[in-house]
Amino acid sequence: MAAPTKTPKAPAKASRWLRRNLVVLAGLATLAYLILPNVVVTVFSFNKPNGRFNYEWQRFSTDAWTDPCGVADLCGSLSLSLEIAFWATLGATVLGTMIAFALARYRFRARSSVSTLLFLPMAMPEVVMAASLATLFLNMGVTFGFWTVLIAHIMFCLSFVVTAVKARVMSMDPRLEQAAQDLYATPLQTFLRVTLPIAAPGIAAGALLAFALSFDDFIITNFNAGSTVTFPMFVWGAAQRGTPVQINVIGTAMFGIAVLCVLVGQLVGGRRKRS
Amino acid sequence: MALTGTRHEPPADAPATAPAARGKLTPYWLLLPGILWLLVFFAAPLVYQASTSVQTGSLEEGFQVTWHLATYWDALTEYYPQFLRSVAYAATATVLCLALGYPLAYLIAFRAGRWRNVLMVLVIAPFFTSFLIRTLAWKTILSDGGPVVSALGALHVLDLTDALGVTEGQRVLATPLAVVCGLTYNFLPFMILPLYTSLERIDPRLHEAAGDLYARPLTTFRKVTFPLSMPGVVAGTLLTFIPATGDYINAELLGSTDQKMIGNVIQSQFLRVLDYPTAAALSFILMAAILAMVTLYIRKSGTEDLV
């Protein structure tokens, strides 16, 4: 036993404290590593760079914040990304929720092959999926653009939605629905007033995930967009041509909105749990 | 089941979760649209790509299936350095993710108390800033005159890493170190979340029990905590390693031509050179290699029921 001495001196005390809190310190260091780029993005959104690139600090300025759409095509690409993410989320959530219910509620013959088919898109490098879908479109003579991107996004978001919704539906107590039916609720009433409200957090989580994945996707969009420019595509191009400060403004705003949404969600969720 | 009464008679062997199992066809109708979508836009393209990989021709004259298997051989002999590099970078990044992610997941699961939710938000929130923007921020952090390079230089760490070939010429950007740093950063949340999920399930009373049996903290960790967190370790490793192997963004933005990974080659073959058979063959080799490694890994780690 390496028990500490009974009257520890200051250094011994410090090393004991260090040993006891090593996990905390290491964990916080990792957290700092995760957050550091976000801090840099925020700080550099107030920069006034000298050249085309915004990698070196020059001097403080709020120009980019007062004129976020001042760069050609930036806000256009942003609204296009939002539009695609909206439809992709809707499509993937509807299709995914249906699949999740089928998997969580029914026993049927093709069950395991369906599960495999759903698992594969999550386990495959994106570049492989991207290239093969683009090969299909190319061979069928489909014009690349909004629709090919949307189709691709629904395809790769689907599995994630299924996973999120399935987890929630599996953990819900089937007796609640049986009770509703025993109280003479019609199947539709049971579904709308019992099943759906209980599954809602899972569906919301799946939808949020799909939105985030679609909005931020670069690799699959890169292969299937043709000359259509989504926001990640714009940033990618900017990395070669010159990075306007407005990119940092958008990045900072996205971070802020996300934190706000999560905090509000936590507050609402916490209050509901208590009541 | 007792609650169902007499109005609905589920078959005796029906799962407890099937109160609405009326029509036998219902699950199929629920599955149909989504599965069709995956078959047409995920599975069929893979088959199509398999056929493309054995075609020859050009964009102008069109491609024909000629069973030209040499494409695979040529791709392999020409691009094996990029393949090896991808696996090496992804494996290093995965190990680093595990080393960095485990303490944080442990901290959130066992030591955070009422800060747990705040820490979770801080882990997930960076996700929402476009990851390309965050990767570009590493250009600033690791830049030649920047604080990281100055500090490492002052501590003579860069002399050592230069000697090891991980960095070059007293700089970090455009070296393997920068690419691995970016990969580790980008895939870290994919390691932390499954780790946290599996750690959170561990009953803290097991720790107390181990302590009562005179196990030191390290022994408790080695014999109780870590084995019980294995599903999270395996899931996190796969979720980090697989996408990291195919990634081409970190190598493109933080590396130079000397750090090109296989994703970069596939991207340029497909989108710039327009040599579709080679791109398809490379994709298939990548897929097969990953599949082989993952199967081996799952066998070794003994959690086959995971997938």
TrEMBL record, chain A:
GO terms for biological process: transmembrane transport. Its main location: membrane. Coiled coil: none annotated. Residues 78-268 form the ABC transmembrane type-1 domain. GO terms for cellular component: plasma membrane. It is a multi-pass membrane protein. The keyword Cell cycle does not apply. Belongs to the binding-protein-dependent transport system permease family. CysTW subfamily. This is ABC transporter permease. It comes from Streptomyces albireticuli. The lineage of its organism: Bacteria, Bacillati, Actinomycetota, Actinomycetes, Kitasatosporales. The gene is potC.
Automatic annotation (TrEMBL), chain B:
InterPro entries: MetI-like, MetI-like_sf. Keywords: Cell membrane, Membrane, Transmembrane, Transmembrane helix, Transport. GO terms for biological process: transmembrane transport. It is a multi-pass membrane protein. The chain crosses the membrane at residues 28-48, 87-110, 117-137, 173-196, 224-244, 279-298. Residues 83-297 form the ABC transmembrane type-1 domain. It is found in: Cell membrane. Its main location: membrane. GO terms for cellular component: plasma membrane. Belongs to the binding-protein-dependent transport system permease family. CysTW subfamily. This is ABC transporter permease. The gene is potB.
